[in-house]
Automatic annotation (TrEMBL):
Residues 5-278 form the CN hydrolase domain. It comes from the Bacteria. GO terms for molecular function: hydrolase activity, acting on carbon-nitrogen (but not peptide) bonds, in linear amides. InterPro entries: Aliph_Amidase/BUP, C-N_Hydrolase, C-N_Hydrolase_sf. Keywords: Hydrolase. This is N-carbamoyl-D-amino-acid hydrolase.
Length: 309
């Protein structure tokens, strides 16, 4: 019996700092409607999809930072999205800044959720690889203060059984790390959903600015192929305030081939009919982990600090 899921990668164009969540949700619902008309069962939105990418600004006042966080999900602003998706019977995923109390302590995470066709949140992932820096660095054209505003997630990469397959989540910088995909694959993930906000300009190595798009696809395609899983990479794209963000949202087959790709830097939907069973083409052959993988020969891969000997 075929195990197919028509997936929509729903790229968002820029979100202005002053743009209210309600306006963004209207844009997301428009993409959702388009996806439903094209037969999608799952729509994937980017990282921090409800607001502008606020870590680009140093804000000394925590109260101001907190205006970008959600304290419940769904909430008043996002409920229309949940309701429309449920009415359409479509699953969806998006990222948001999450603030919650755990054990009497306020915690803040860069989070993504997966919602099934009945409107239930069935998976939640908190970003593990937080890039950037902690202190204000005024020499930069813009900041990248994820390490200041978020704590790293504490739960490992893992899939959930939903929408006909084993679906996992990762967020932006995670896609550059081979460990992300391998951990997912070892746990049985068949499709990883990865929203991102990636500036064209990388202040620490501006000589790589022209490689940002290349590195994006290089990472997504290698991760898919080397682990035999589907990858859905979804950008927040275009000129967002003072920052140019790459686009290139795409769906990558387990063979590493890009099977759908956005061609604009605006709100755009690209879709593909994904067969979960295609993971076997790779996992039963060239990357048959049980047969060919040699974990005893890679002891440093999960050691906290790599040493040369
Ligand atoms: N949002 C991100 O995680 N962005 C990072 C950059 C800027 C290093 C990324 O890996 O794309």
């Amino acid at each position: 019996m075929p195990r197919n899921l028509v997936v929509g990668a729903a790229q968002l164009g820029p979100i202005a700092r002053a743009e209210p969540r309600e306006a963004v949700v209207v844009r997301m619902i428009a993409l959702l409607d388009k996806a439903a008309a094209r037969g999608c069962g799952l729509v994937v939105f980017p990282e921090l999809a409800l607001t502008t990418f606020f870590p680009r600004w140093y804000m000394p006042d925590q109260a101001e930072v907190d205006t970008f966080f959600e304290t419940e999900m769904p909430n008043a602003a996002t409920l229309p999205l949940f309701e429309r998706a449920r009415a359409l019977g479509i699953g969806f995923s998006f990222g948001f800044a999450e603030k919650l109390e755990i054990g009497g302590r306020i915690r803040r995470f860069n989070t993504a959720i997966l919602v099934d066709g009945e409107g239930q949140i069935v998976h939640r992932y908190r970003k593990i690889h937080l890039p950037g820096h902690t202190e204000n660095e005024p020499w930069r054209a813009f900041q990248h203060l994820e390490k200041r505003y978020f704590e790293p997630g504490e739960e490992v990469f893992s899939p959930v059984t939903a929408l006909g397959g084993e679906i996992g989540l990762a967020i932006c910088n995670d896609r550059r790390w081979p460990e992300t995909y391998r951990e997912h694959a070892l746990r049985g993930t068949e499709m990883v959903l990865i929203g991102y906000n990636t500036p064209v300009h990388y202040p620490l190595a501006p000589e790589h600015d022209h490689l940002q798009c290349f590195h994006n696809h290089l990472s997504l395609q290698a991760g898919a192929y080397q682990n035999g899983l589907w990858v859905v990479g979804v950008a927040k794209a275009g000129k967002e305030e003072n920052c140019d963000l790459i686009g290139q949202s795409c769906i990558v087959a387990p063979t590493g081939e890009i099977v759908a790709q956005a061609s604009t830097l605006h709100d755009e939907l690209v879709i593909h009919d994904c067969d979960f069973d295609r993971c076997t083409e790779i996992r039963a052959n060239i990357f048959d982990f049980a047969k060919h993988r040699r974990p005893e020969m890679y002891p440093l891969l999960s050691a906290p600090i790599a040493t040369r000997r």
